[in-house]
Amino acid sequence: MDKNILNFRRKTIKCRYCNTNLGKSVFDLGHQPLSNDYLKKYELEQNETYLPLKLFLCSSCGLLQIPAYKSSMEVFKEDYAYLSSTSKTLCNHAKSFVDYAIKYFNLNTSSFVVEIASNDGYLLEHVLKKKIPCLGVEPTKLAGSISKKKKIDTLINFFSYKISQEIVKNYKRPDLVIANNVLPHVPNINDFLKGLSFLIDTEGVISIEFQHLLSLIKNNLWDTIYHEHYSYLSLEFLIIALKKFKLKIFDIQVIPTHGGSLRVFLKKEKSKRKVNEKIINILLKQEKKYLCKSPITYLNLQKQALRAKLDLLNLLIKSKLKNKKVIAYGAAAKGNTLLNYSGIKSDLLHGVIDKAKSKQGSYLPGSHIPISDISIIKKIKPDIIIILAWNLVDEIMKELIEYKDIEIYTAIPKLTKIKKI
Fold first, then answer.
1. Most buried residue, 16, 145, 293, 376, by most Cβ within 10 Å?
2. Are 408 and 417 in contact (CB under 8 A)?
């Protein structure tokens, strides 16, 4: 069992990186169910597990984190419903990265690429099309099985130092390791980084993407806080953590995914790759300016969360009193954080649209709002649609272009009426 789970059960909350005792929480979204624990109809009458959704800031290393109330295996179960291929935006993003990486790192048919948390193969399928040998490591059986159907060699397991040893033994050291949007989902950061370091040789490259804590703070993206995201990463913390495992950042790209992310390229300390000190220093100065390591910052974020909650409730209550029907678009984890913090149920929100067939026919955790495909619009004939998956708003608006009379809003970073295309 993960030591962080044991620490919590002993009522001692310690930092998952440096083991420092954590003090009081700096941000609190109440008690909520796991945001990706979608329910079947028969489960609606059963008890749901609600866990504290609180952030703690380590006074030693500066890591912002949620205690591991549940282990990875309890969170990312076999039927975990998130599938990356349902989003055209993410698929295009993946293809663009693969094209860039092949050119920038001179990948060819003699190269070897490993992706950690490869999901349903939405990225590696583009590597495979270029006839570059590759391996996916994916913990969830549902996504991993889809990847295998695409003829992608996929290891269905959680990545760890032990797994990295198995990969090197059974394959070879990869030229490129990709770990997109996975490091924040890892309870044991030290073991994960140890595994990354072991995978590559002196000239190997690791590419990591994650939502930047700076963007979360600047853009009021508090709904991206949920139990599956154990950690919220600043560049300053990452540099500290990497040093322990003899890894170093040599370049960074600021990318728009998830409201503002970093694509960080890592190398072994002994590698002779040139380091882009300029972009690193710029970002570190920005983090310092926005006080990413100050509890006051998260007190202000708490006020912004309350404001967004009240504004959304005000819209929904006024609509209810006027007999207007409201539905949502995007059964996303971030949407569940927003709805459950706001206490919104199916009496105010009649349904939610999602393109993922793995979610359709199920119900949102906590709020118990039913999930359907886009045909729900013609059935319910809503007056208002709230886009919960705000990171895909451009893609979604194209799908809603024919519905001229429906008002469309996003609630994050603040309640905003979206102009029609």
1. 16
2. yes
The 3-class SS string of the chain reads CCHHHHHHHCCCCECCCCCCECCCCCEEEEEECCCCCCECHHHHHCCCCCEEEEEEECCCCCCEECCCCCCHHHHCCCCCCCCHHHCHHHHHHHHHHHHHHHHHCCCCCCCCEEEECCCCCCCHHHHHHCCCCEEEECCCHHHHHHHHHCCCCEECCCCCHHHHHHHHHHCCCCCEEEEECCHHHCCCHHHHHHHHHHHCCCCCEEEEEEECHHHHHHCCCHHHCCCCCCEECCHHHHHHHHHCCCEEEEEEEEECHHHCEEEEEEEECCCCCCCCHHHHHHHHHHHHHCCCCCHHHHHHHHHHHHHHHHHHHHHHHHHHHCCCCEEEECCCHHHHHHHHHHCCCCCCCCCEECCCCCCCCCECCCCCCEEECCCHHHHHCCCEEEECCHHHHHHHHHHCCCCCCCEEEECCCCCEECCCC
Beta-sheet pairing, 231-232 with 205-211: unpaired
pLDDT in tens, 370-415: 999 999 999 999 999 999 999 999 999 999 999 989 999 999 999 9
Task: Please say if the pLDDT value at position 42 is more than 50.
Answer: yes
Q: What is the CATH number of the domain that holds 383?
A: 3.40.50.720
Q: Find the length of the chain.
A: 421
Average pLDDT of the chain, as a whole number:
93
For residue 59, is it within any domain? Answer: no
In the sheet with 51-57, reading across from the earlier edge strand, the strands are: 27-32, 51-57, 64-65, 231-232
| Terminal-to-terminal C-alpha distance of the chain | 51
- Mean pLDDT (whole number) for 100-116: 97
- Tell me the pLDDT band of 421, cut-offs 50, 70 and 90: low
Domain assignment present for 16: no
Position 72 pLDDT exceeds 90? no
Q: What is the mean pLDDT of residues 255-280?
A: 96
Specify the number of domains making up the chain. Answer: 1
Long-range (24+ apart) CB contacts under 8 A made by 370-375 are: 370/346, 371/38, 371/331, 374/399
| Neighbour count for residue 163 (Cβ, 10 Å) | 18
210 domain-assigned: no
Domain extent for 334: 322-417
| pLDDT at position 78 | 55
- Does 331 fall in a domain? yes
What's the whole-model pTM score? 0.92
Bridge pairing between strands 326-329 and 352-353: parallel
